[in-house]
TrEMBL record:
SUPFAM superfamilies: Nucleic acid-binding proteins. Residues 151-211 form the S1 motif domain. Pfam families: CvfB_1st (PF21191), CvfB_2nd (PF21543), S1_2 (PF13509), WHD_CvfB (PF17783). This is S1 motif domain-containing protein. It comes from Bacillus sonorensis. Belongs to the CvfB family. PROSITE patterns: S1 (PS50126).
Length: 282
């Protein structure tokens, strides 16, 4: 008998705080807090073997959501610096996703409520670790996107981060990629997102964008420019002929988006340009 096994054990005897179960050789405790249904009239009980807080073998009638052979979605319940994140696997104890399976920057680690697709590993000492699925396991979940998804929105979960962008799987199983140029911030691993389809690819996957459509983005971009102007007492060294790279670095906008936003503010009579600078009208 060892941690991580799912066994059918006989009831040996009852105590005030639970039942003692046996496989004929070893006797372990099924505490009252780990009983999920009435077993008073039963001779055998299906249980999962774990380790209690004192390091002893113990039984629970709770069934883990994942196992060494079964991947599944589990929810993040906590993050600990330099250790990793803990996920709820359906047992009294949570499992640790260690730092080696997380992004190098904690800013994009999963937060409480995010989800990861994982398997469960339990050591001989009863420590529980969850490991996110590799790409070949994720492919088992994928479904093909139809061409009519173009320009529509998909909701899903970020399951992988790379230098050039983020991979997301939609609620219906469609694989999507968000290039770094199609977002204003990097999503967290495990974060739930809603993104717009900007390309349906031949392999059934899609390219996605977290940026608003042009007509929706202009008021947002205009407000961002105005906020920046006011932070500089109404004057900034940027105008419609500024270098595109400077605009991208300062505002995270393309030059076209910047010019549209400036034009919007000028039509409203809120700004004017002069000698390479933009000023707020007082």
């Amino acid at each position: 008998m060892k941690p991580g096994q799912q066994l059918t054990l006989k009831i040996d005897h009852k105590a005030d705080y639970g039942y003692f179960l046996t496989d004929g050789e070893t006797v372990i405790l099924l505490h009252n807090s780990e009983i999920t249904e009435d077993i008073e009239e039963k001779e055998e009980v299906d249980v999962f073997i774990s380790i209690d807080h004192e390091g002893r073998l113990a039984a629970t009638m709770r069934k883990p959501l994942i196992s060494a052979d079964h991947y599944g979605w589990v929810e993040v319940v906590d993050a600990v610096d330099d250790m990793g994140v803990f996920v709820d696997v359906g047992l009294t104890k949570d499992a640790l996703v260690a730092t080696e399976h997380l992004p190098p920057y904690e800013s994009v680690w999963p937060k409480k409520g995010d989800r990861l697709y994982c398997m469960l590993k339990i050591t001989s000492h009863g420590r529980m670790f969850a490991k996110p699925a590799p790409e070949d396991k994720m492919t088992e979940l994928f479904t093909d996107a139809s061409p009519d998804l173009m320009n529509k929105e998909l909701s899903g979960t970020v399951y992988r981060l790379i230098a050039s962008g983020s991979f997301m799987i939609s609620d219906s199983g469609i694989r999507g990629f968000i290039h770094s140029s199609e977002r204003k911030r990097e999503p967290r691993l495990g974060e739930k997102l809603t993104a717009r389809v900007i390309k349906v690819k031949e392999d059934g996957s899609v390219n996605l964008s977290l940026l608003p459509r042009k007509q929706d983005a202009m008021p947002v971009d205009a407000e961002e420019i105005l906020t920046y102007l006011r932070s500089r007492n109404g004057a900034m060294p940027y105008w419609d002929k500024s270098d595109p790279e400077d605009l991208k670095a300062r505002f995270n906008m393309s030059k076209a988006a910047f010019k549209r936003a400036l034009g919007h503010l000028m039509k409203q009579g809120k700004i004017y340009q002069e000698d390479g600078w933009t000023y707020e009208k007082k």
